[in-house]
Amino acid sequence: MSQKLPMPDDFSFPFPPYDIQLELMKKVFTALEDQKLAILESPTGTGKSLSLICSALTWLHKYNEVQQSRLEIELRAAEAAVQQCEAVDDWFAAAGVRQAQTEAVQNIKEKLSRLNKERSRIQAINIRKMKAKKEKESEGSFSSSWKTRDEKTSNNSRENISPQKKSPVGEDFLEEELDLLLNDDVDESSELEEAADEDEEEGCIKIYYCSRTHSQLSQFIGELQKTRFGGAQTRVVALASRHNLCINPDVMRLKHPNLVNDRCLDLQRGSSGCVSLSCADGNTKGQKRSKANQACPWNRPNAVRALGDELLTNVQDLEDAVKEGKALKACPYYAARTALRDAQLVLVPYNTVLQPGTREACGVRLKNNCLIVDEAHNLLGTLASVQELTLSLAQVCRSREQVQQYLQRYESRLSARNLLHLNQLLFCLKAFSSVLQPELNAKTAKNNATEAPDMVTTCAASDVGGAEEVMGGNPFLVCVELFRRLVTSHASARVLVNVDDSSRTIKYLVLDPASHFHDIVRQCRSVILVGGTMKPFQEFREQLFYAAGAPETRVMELSCGHVVPSENVLPVALSTGPTGVTLDLTHANRNQPHVVQEVGRVLYNACCVVPAGVVVFLPSYQYSELFLSLLRKQGLLDKIETKKKVFVEPRSASAVGALLAAYATAVRRSAEAAPGQCNGAVLFCVVGGKMSEGINFSDGLGRCVVMVGLPYPNTQSVELRERMKHLDAKHFEAMRLHGKKIQENSKAEEPSRAQRSGGEAYYHNLCFRAVNQSIGRAIRHRQDYACMLLLDQRYSRQSTVSALPDWISRSLLRADKYPSAHAAVAKFFAHHKQKQQR
Questions:
Q1: How far is CA 708 from CA 519, 574, 580, 599, 669, in A?
Q2: What is the largest CA-CA distance in the chain?
Q3: DSSP per-residue letters across 369-387
């Protein structure tokens, strides 16, 4: 048994760490060393990224320092055990033990061999890097030396091939063969890829860090460069899509990611002749490819390897990699994949890790490696979305046209078997058209869900009407993917058919998306889920870890406090308004004029005492429009506008930037306003909208955050109902297997979190995760301060309080009467005003 790494006294944090930062770093170090599954909550603005970097890379470097000696100690112990088996008289009893010990010795020797090979590869990289530097200094440009060499090789190849040679099958065949023979880069690239496929070396131990977007990964690299780990001692590679890394102008102009992928793969095949190039408008045009564009000129193996060496020896974000790729005339996408094996820290977006096919295609190997998932509050939703597939009527019609055209053109050349398959395919496409067109199939409901296997047998053939325009990619591939999922689907798969006038789609979804995460949990040495608003933990713990077979002892949790002092935060749960009206904002009561009017009075009074910016979150866009309309009729919105300028979140994403800029300007000008004048601004947002995540309302932009009601999702959603039914069935089955009695909760009594069924827990978690995410928009750094007003009597319930982040629930003021709450808010801001004036 190898000795555990001791907890370090210093994590090389670039600044003196706060207590909560130190606590988080110790938890991360422990999780990686003890091979734990961790759920960690650290509020935004607490230096979460730096804490992750310093703790994870401190562990990684210490682990690598002792790995050689650990393996040597284990090898000596295993060899001694084998020798002891030889000395045993009972050879038959010792045979099995000896075989196991011999296998253990062999495994340890293989690990040591891999370590030596890794060191040799890194030495080779450094040597190539030094050689390249010398060539650059002596010849003026490293990239030009490769260009000259490639051109020379290409010219020699062309001189050695006689263009006069005739082919017995015609000129077209000869031209195609010559194109392939002359394309040295494609041949060499394919040879390297085949060699890589044959090489099953695992490489060094890795930490995979994944987040939702490429911009977040770039921000993480920026934080990494602030630490001592941002130098050459840590080999870091950022994986991204072709759309983000491509530097080929002919491919980049296609814009759409699917088109970029298709064109890139087409270029790697290096085939010549008539090819079908997808254009940005979705149309296809047959174009004769010339010899000059038969393969990507940026995917030259030697230059790609040189760029891979550069990525490993210098920490670079995606923009830096693209810039370096242009300088070396090398593809950053394939360079990153080439460098992956020897990388110690790999940065990847969610989709690369969560989809098994993408993991395999990118060479991401999770076995015995560590995975850190940042912004993990989105993980379950992301797991669901990556497994969903939506097929529109336009895509069905376009696919049907493609198959019909193919049949008409090649019918005489096709065998009877292929004709049968194509006609079956055409039959299925007609069936999809029938399902999506109610006028042709009167039995189809407006919105309906069915189990995936039933979908295959219930479709009926019919004629197809007109088609809408399809943008991006080949729609036929979407149909093929849907067919594949339908015939391989499992019990939790459903097909949702939507035939509303505004949208006609077939949506494939998986009701238990967490099951696809279980392989990751079983393969990884350690999995760490980190986010600013992870509570409630129950869903992650049960669906992701326990369901994968992980024992309770392997799971660890932590909810950090905030770096801000407790006196800088004032969360208030209001049960009544200024006139004593109960703030009952359930779906049945929230539209009542007297309830809206009471909420409006609370907002007006808040605008009178809160300086700078106030951000109000409403449950939905539809309710936002109704709420503001009623406030306008009652005259309360006009009163609010006398205190603060009013802004409303737009539905269009393109208008968000301009609105935020105008809101920030109004807030900044509040410092110049005279007493009695309009002071600051109020911004009405929607929970789950464009402002509730990724937008920082720090300092004056968010001195007060107001949550109006609890944003429970729409129970009339077919998808939500199906998910809740499935989770209820799993919950009751688990209780039956454990011999627990299933009790129905009384409607008059609020069930505890432990008593809720699987569907109820999922429904409540959706709501409170959205609440916590919205609340977290306000406090962004240690000197920041803000008030949170939670307007609904349900916020005072214990089950609700326990679902809030610890740094909120610890300071929560539950106010049954409005006057005491308003006085507390006024005192809070008066105190901070005096503090600033000192």
A1: 40, 10, 17, 8, 27
A2: 99
A3: -EEEESSGGGHHHHHHHHT
Question: Which one, of 622, 604, 615, lies nearest residue 685 by Cα?
Answer: 615
Q: pLDDT digits over 494-537, tens only?
A: 899 988 777 789 999 988 888 889 999 999 999 999 998 888 88
Number of C-beta neighbours around residue 200 at 10 A: 7
Cβ atoms 329, 147 nearer than 8 A: yes
What region does 47 belong to: left with phi over 0, alpha with psi -120 to 50, or beta? left
Question: pTM of the predicted model, to two decimals?
Answer: 0.79
CA angle 208, 211, 212 (to 5 degrees): 145
Q: Which of 673, 676, 649 is nearest to 660 (CA)?
A: 649
Other CB atoms within 10 A of residue 720 CB: 16
What is the secondary structure of 443-504 as a DSSP string? T--SEEEEEHHHHHHH-------------SS-HHHHHHHHHHHHHH--TTEEEEEEE-SS-E
Q: Any residues with CB less than 8 A from the CB of 601 and at least 6 apart, and which? A: 577, 578, 579, 636
Provide the b/e sequence for 793-806 (b: ≥16 CB within 10 Å): bbbbeebbbebbbb
* Integer Cα distance of 829 and 827 in angstroms: 6
HSE value, Cβ hemisphere, 13 Å, CA-based, for 285: 6
> CA–CA distance from 495 to each of 255, 356, 510, 512 (Å)?
31, 22, 9, 14
Do the Cβ atoms of 411 and 419 come closer than 8 Å? yes
Tokens of 745: 């909760």
Instruction: Give yes or no for residue 167 having a pLDDT over 60.
Output: no
Give the strand pairing for 207-211 and 284-289.
unpaired
Give the Cα separation of 837 and 426 in Å (integer).
76
* Cis amide prior to 536 (ω within 30 degrees): yes
Exposed (0-12), middle (13-18) or buried (19+): which is 446, by Cβ within 10 Å?
Answer: exposed
**Using the 8-state DSSP alphabet, how is residue 545 labeled?**
I
DSSP 37: E
DSSP-based three-state secondary structure for 774: helix
Structure confidence at residue 74 as a pLDDT band (50, 70, 90): confident
**Cβ neighbours of residue 71 closer than 8 Å, sequence gap 6 or more:** 108, 111, 112, 115
Predicted local distance difference test score (pLDDT) of residue 519: 92
Tokens of 758: 């699987």
SS (H, E, C) 612-631: CEEEEEECCHHHHHHHHHHH
- Residue scoring higher pLDDT (185 or 435): 435
Helices 142-160 and 184-198 meet at what angle, rounded to 10? 110
User: pLDDT by residue (tens digit) across 635-673?
Assistant: 999 999 999 999 999 988 888 889 999 999 999 887 776
